[in-house]
Amino acid sequence: MRRRSALGTAAAALAGALTLAGCSGSGSDSDPGSGSSKAELSVSGPYIPQPVSADMAAGFLTITNKGGAEDALTSVTSDVAGQITMHSTVGGAMQEKSSFAIPAHGQLVFKSGGNHLMFEKLKHKPEQGQTVTVKLTFAESGPLTVEMPVKSATYNPSTGH
Question: What digits encode the pLDDT tens for the residues 23-33?
């Protein structure tokens, strides 16, 4: 009887060890098959206020990350502009940034008076009612293509005007 008990205990210990070994790594950030350990990005509220100048425009949107890993927006491109730069605004001072972190289970917000996109060297001036296609490139996730409607120069997303 004692031998069966020892075998049962050994079998239980082995099963437990195998279970733990099977878990190690399955939730790690390096495993691309683990849904909760990678960024899950989506975009909402994109728009461009109709530019007042013929060569420069601003762009705003929100990137939401529902995943369990941080990512970073590293570049933005569009056929409408020679280049698009990313800027932060802190205390009224604008500073160009090469990337923006998107926290796990968080958001990156580009809004008037804060972080924003600058469409520079416009190839043509976007007009209200048109849509501008933009490609967002990230450090880890695949690129996202976003359609940004051109709104009135005084558009405010909180009021819809």
Answer: 333 333 444 44
What pTM was computed for the model?
A: 0.76
Q: Is 61 exposed, middle or buried (0-12, 13-18, 19+ CB in 10 A)?
A: buried
Q: How far apart, in Å, are the Cα atoms of 30 and each of 17, 27, 68?
A: 22, 8, 12
Cα(48)–Cα(146) distance, rounded to whole angstroms?
12
Q: Please say whether the dihedral angle defined by the alpha carbons of residues 66, 77, 52 and 96, taken in this order, is positive or negative.
A: positive
CA–CA gap between residue 69 and residue 40 (Å, rounded): 8
Spatial distance between the Cα atoms of 89 and 83, rounded to a whole number of angstroms = 19
Contacts of 111 (CB under 8 A, 6+ apart): 60, 62, 157
Cα gap 6→158, rounded to integer Å: 69
